[in-house]
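Tokens for chain A. Residues wanted.
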């Protein structure tokens, strides 16, 4: 009997682990991309649709004489809210980021030089 109770408890807890902490998230401040984050580090990051979003690329390592970096700007098609490893497309309904988006990083080099490609795709599109 105790073993059955343990198994049921473990299954229930594993289900809870995959559910977003929506009550906690609802109380957090929303910070727009580019704004200063609160000192405690607890906030929702909002990336607004149609507004430029800058990303910094850093290339570094002990095999390099000089490290480098560059900034590029993209414009998102839709609003995205992020909290730790949770994401939302409406700021209310949250899923693990990996369930909403597919990300990829590719690095290549040829005689023309190096290229880093970062993919950020909404799943289901």
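Reply:
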């Amino acid at each position: 009997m105790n073993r059955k109770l343990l198994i049921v408890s473990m299954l229930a807890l594993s289900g809870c682990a995959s559910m977003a902490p929506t009550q906690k998230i609802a109380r957090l401040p929303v910070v727009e991309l580019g704004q200063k984050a609160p000192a405690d580090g607890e906030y929702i990051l909002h990336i607004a649709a149609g507004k430029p979003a800058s990303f910094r690329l850093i290339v570094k390592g002990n095999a390099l004489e000089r490290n480098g970096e560059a900034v590029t700007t993209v414009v998102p098609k839709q609003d995205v809210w992020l909290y730790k490893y949770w994401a939302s497309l409406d700021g209310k309904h949250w899923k693990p980021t990996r369930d909403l988006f597919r990300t990829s990083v590719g690095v290549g080099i040829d005689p023309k030089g190096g290229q880093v490609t970062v993919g950020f795709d909404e799943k289901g599109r």
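Strands lie at 30-32, 44-47, 53-59, 68-74, 80-83, 86-88, 95-96, 101-110, 113-122. The first strand starts at residue 30 and ends at 32.
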